[in-house]
Amino acid sequence: MIKVEQNYNRDSDSKIKVNGFRPAKDVLLNDYSNHYIHSGSNPQSHVTNIENPVVGYPKLQKLFEKKENQVAEYATRPLGCKVSIDKMVPTLNKWIQKDKLTFDVIMIGCLTDNQFIYPLLTQLPLDKLVSKPGFLFIWASAHKINELSKLLNNEVWAKKFRRSEELVFVPIDKNSPYYPGLVDDDDTLVEKVQWHCWMCITGTVRRSTDGHLIHCNVDTDLNIETSETQNGAVPPDLYKVAENFSTATKRLHIIPARTGWETPVRVRPGWVVMSPDVMLDNFDPSKYKTDIDEIGSHVPFNEEIESLRPKSPVQR
């Protein structure tokens, strides 16, 4: 649930009589696009419940707490694999062929512009790296998403991955570390500031019957940067969306970009983070398999979470 400040546009001269009709009250307009043009204040800065979007909804608050605790309980230790961009494909091929390693959740990309996502997607046998059923999250700027859409609509790709959802992340203003750069050096009045994510699915997953694999309707498709977001290449919200949606514990994040020390790539419990600049390099495939065997490949079914989780309407 997103709440915005009320922006009143009162104009007493707009009250005119037409065939004896007179408006009973002023019209309420929340035109924040027009407000941005005149003031330079971004529309997303007027959302009042960014810090806690479930405030006033005790059932959802309890659901979020339960999910967070469950994900933390069944998570591997933070793991990083520091590898140069040109070595990523050979390294991943080794994991597939020699180590027989697969992941249920794979996220590709971060919130930086200098990414080599397209070459990676065309070279890597992702269908062998992602389990079936499995989930693929691909993040890119608004300028790159059209290029990715053409690839995802390709007949060969469509046979392996089914595009399911589009997620959006919006930075709060131009001072944000996640504010995307412009395509050219010219200043423009209106800029595309959002980041897009295509979520793709391998295999067959059904909302109505596969509650042990996915938890639908926990998060919204839109995330706005909060004041507590740390400077880095990946906001925690990107990880939380994947963690809350899939119950799988084998998660891989591939960042095909040099981010530098000013934009650190942090590791996260429950994830293997592959990046040239990841802050930790401690991943061992055989040890990882042992860790997964100990915690299980999926978080266990929890009756309370299932009862709290919003359900899609049943078609009649």
Automatic annotation (TrEMBL):
Claim: Transmembrane is one of the keywords in the record: no
Coiled-coil residues: none
Keywords on record: Nucleus
Cellular localisation: Nucleus
GO CC term (a single one): nucleus
Pfam families according to UniProt: MT-A70
InterPro entries assigned to the protein according to its UniProt record, in alphabetical order: METTL14-like (IPR045123), MT-A70-like (IPR007757)
Similarity remark: Belongs to the MT-A70-like family.
Entry annotated with the keyword Cell inner membrane: no
The organism's place on the tree of life at top rank: Eukaryota
GO molecular function, one term: mRNA binding
This protein's encoding gene: KAR4
Protein name in the entry: Regulatory protein
